[in-house]
Design brief:
Layout: E1 5-8, H1 21-38, H2 47-53, E2 59-68, E3 71-81, E4 88-95, H3 104-118, E5 123-131, H4 132-137, E6 144-146, E7 153-155, H5 159-166, E8 170-181, H6 186-200, E9 204-210, H7 215-231, H8 240-253, E10 256-264, E11 270-278, E12 285-293, H9 302-317, E13 323-328, H10 333-342, E14 345-356
Parallel strand pairs: 4-5, 12-13
Antiparallel strand pairs: 1-2, 2-3, 3-4, 5-14, 6-7, 8-13, 8-14, 9-10, 10-11, 11-12
Helix pairs in contact: 6-9
């Protein structure tokens, strides 16, 4: 029986040339895997989006493909930060269902690990996806894998969890993955806004923008983002200049960003923000990004107010949207409650698995 051959995919100069055929085939593999996992392709990159990712100046993105009889049946995407966290590599594995169980995922992962070692990357992070229906079907009495951080564990019975564990990866954390059908009704949004304003008695003013932060708020916005990243253990640099570069990169790739921030009227400073992203060349799905509320302003329903305002802005500018997705740490009870109030329902869990080659035997 023929064995699959793993090779690095050449990124074409453009998507219209004949040389783009393999790239487009690899993108379609990923799309089919998302459909098989989640029942739709909302979480799949479009060719244009992945092409833009391969030209990100802040991250080196490499694609490996597994071929059998000339056909691409699997792929590994390797994302390597270029400015901060330069020991790190994120690996995404996609293998078509027809090729499952043939060792193709293991072969791709081994090739990806060999590649990142050659680039002096010592830490690899792999993501696994677990739809809610699969988790419900797992044997609750069976052995489970505890995450190093957070309260969600995963059943070893899960094929994806078993694959990552057998490959020497440790479960770093697992997050709840939720979906919300759009549009949301104006009555619901109005009621929730009134609730939030009653809680904090009008102590905040909302500011909103699309794609580019107004100069008036840029320094405050960067301060909030940097503080949030440091709380998550990321101590990399972040400045207004880098914000502008990131916004320009998003513009060039076709991505859109919808942001709502809150100003504390007493101090005149921004104390909270939430953002939503839309992929380039895709009009039906959006993704909830981070929501940050300074600790001194917790307990005042400020997170609820800015998320509701941002959903209103989102629907105003992008009425064709049909779904939005969100990821939350399981211990973030307040934000999970806010999402549930907005109509989010659990779609499953995503696991982040880590291997440190400095520690691996």
């Amino acid at each position: 029986m023929a064995e699959a051959k793993v090779e690095q995919l050449r990124i074409p100069e453009d998507l219209q040339h004949n040389s783009a055929a393999d790239f487009l085939e690899a993108v379609e593999v990923s799309r089919q895997v998302r459909i098989d996992t989640w029942g739709n392709d909302f979480l799949a990159y479009t060719p244009a989006e992945l092409f833009a990712l391969c030209h990100d100046p802040y991250e080196w993105y490499v694609v490996l493909v597994a071929r059998l009889d000339g056909k691409i049946l699997g792929r590994a995407g390797i994302a390597m930060p270029l400015d901060d966290n330069t020991e790190l590599a994120h690996v995404t594995l996609d293998v078509l269902p027809v090729a499952a169980g043939q060792g193709m995922g293991r072969k791709l992962l081994e090739a990806a690990e060999l590649f990142v070692k050659g680039e002096n990357r010592r830490i690899v992070v792999v993501e696994t996806n677990h739809p809610a229906a699969d988790l419900e079907a797992a044997d609750e009495a069976g052995e489970r894998i505890a995450a190093a951080h957070g309260s969600i564990d995963l059943p070893l019975k899960s094929r994806e969890a078993r694959f990552a564990s057998n490959a020497g990866y440790a479960l770093e954390r697992a997050e709840q993955f939720s979906a919300c059908a759009l549009p949301l009704g104006a009555d619901l949004l109005g009621q929730l806004t009134a609730r939030a304003e009653e809680t904090h008695q009008g102590a905040y003013r909302v500011h909103q923008w699309l794609d580019a932060c107004p100069e008036e708020w840029a320094a405050d916005f960067v301060r909030l983002e940097k503080s949030h990243n440091e709380d998550d253990g990321d101590h990399g640099t972040w400045s207004v200049e880098q914000l502008r570069e990131s916004e320009e990169l998003s513009r060039l790739s076709g991505r859109r960003t919808v942001v709502t921030a809150a100003e504390c009227l007493e101090s005149g400073a921004l104390v909270a923000f939430t953002s939503i992203s839309l992929l380039g060349h895709r009009a039906d799905v959006a993704f909830q990004d981070e929501t940050v509320v300074q600790k001194a302003h917790h307990g005042k329903d400020l997170g609820l107010q800015i998320k509701v305002a941002n959903m209103e802005q989102l629907q105003q500018h992008f009425p064709e949207l049909r779904a939005i997705y969100s990821w939350n740490a399981p211990e973030n009870d307040y934000m999970l409650a806010v999402d549930a109030t907005l109509g989010y329902t659990s779609a499953g869990v995503t696991g982040q698995w880590r291997k440190d080659f400095n520690k691996a035997q």
